[in-house]
Amino acid sequence: MKKSPLFWKVSTLIGCILLLLVPLLMVSNLISERASYRDDVEDTLRQSTSGPQQLTGPLIAIPVTEIYYKIEDKKEVEHKRSYLHFVLPESLVIDGNQQVQSRSIGIYDGQIWTTDLTLKAQFSTEKLTRLKGETITLGQPFVVVGVGDARGIGAVSISKINGEALTVEPGSGVSGELPGIHIPLNENLLAMKTLTLDMSLSLNGTGSFSVVPVGRNSELTLRSNWPHPGFMGDYLPVQREISASGFQASWKSSWFANNLESLFGDQEQPEWRHVPAFSVTVATPADQYQLTDRAIKYAVLLIALTFMAFFVYETLTHLRLHPMQYLLVGLSLVLFYLVLLALSEHVGFTSAWIIASLVGAMMNGVYLQAVLKGWRRSAVFILALLGLDAVMWFLLRSEDSALLLGSAVLAIALFAVMYLTRHFDWYSLSQSKRSDPPDGDSSNNMDDDALRIWK
């Protein structure tokens, strides 16, 4: 078996494929490195402008000081407890209009967005009667509107309760990690049964935009010029329309679904960052780095199919190819991905794919014309390579059908090999050619001829 030329030929081809994994790994690492540069651009934009935004509120916060007594050392000792009591709106309706802009740093792009929001919330003060008592003192109430990053707060143009204009102050007014704004209220307003808050503000950010549905019934309508939204978070929109010019989406939720009222108990620091929210991300579509990384996963398949075609060609003809010739063709296939990565950063992935395919076809066409002894034979292999490039393109663009298409390609390739070699005697390759040695010929010369790989 080990002296069979077929065994050594197949082993050598497998070794060539394993050797080509080294430059493939280097190209794959280069893709990851370039993608990390792109991610650094997004981080730079986030640091220079503002990060993801989560709108929490509006809520009415009332400082409460409660006096209570405990028995200590058989004596009744007076204690005080201070906390914020939050009044959540009975209904919350938010309308947003988002404009996304691309910013470039070098050859890399990132997105920042500005969202103009109109909020309308209705509060009921009936529950506040439970707070009144001889041992309870209420402080000045205020409206809390929290955001994810205070640097993104723009102009607050309208702020009214029951038609009365209010003053907006910086800071959320609550301790803990909740940046935002607050609006002091007149204590006389709490005597009214219903409070209606109307306000509008502009919010800038990068990445995701979220709204916490604090109302008993909450609605959010968002329009944007970005055609690649990423709907995430705890709730999917009940309606959405996506087109090349942007998207429009609507969310709805209630306390029956999110139980948010129980999350805002009488405590100074609720878990602001861990509450359910309506969320959408200004998602970057599959860029050239993601697509190139996915394409290079098919590189071994492309090289193996090319080597298999050469092997079958050798089997059916008397022309023999050296392992170095296999390696040179394999390196040209690896170079395809490097050219694809370099060009895609400047001309786009589709154009880069076409150019890289044509460059590879030209290189192999000139080389194989000399190796295969003719343009006609070379043209057949070049057309086959271009066909494989086209198939890989459809594999990348058809994620849902990638497995089906890939399986079909392998089945067709295997059937072609079986059909072309159906009458071939493989034992003729497995048996070494021996001839009667001439007089005086040594056994070493016979063994050398028997172990020749490409004869």
TrEMBL record:
Cellular-component GO terms for this entry: plasma membrane
PANTHER family: INNER MEMBRANE PROTEIN CRED
Keywords recorded for this protein, A-Z: Membrane, Transmembrane, Transmembrane helix
Chain segments carrying region Disordered: 431-455
Membrane-spanning parts: 295-313, 325-343, 349-367, 379-396, 402-421
NCBIfam families in the cross-refs: PRK11715.1-1
Presence of the UniProt keyword Kinase in the record: no
Record-linked Pfam families: CreD
Recorded superkingdom: Bacteria
The keyword Acetylation belongs to this UniProt entry's keyword annotation: no
Name of the protein in question: Inner membrane CreD family protein
Taxonomic source organism: Enterobacter sp. (strain 638)
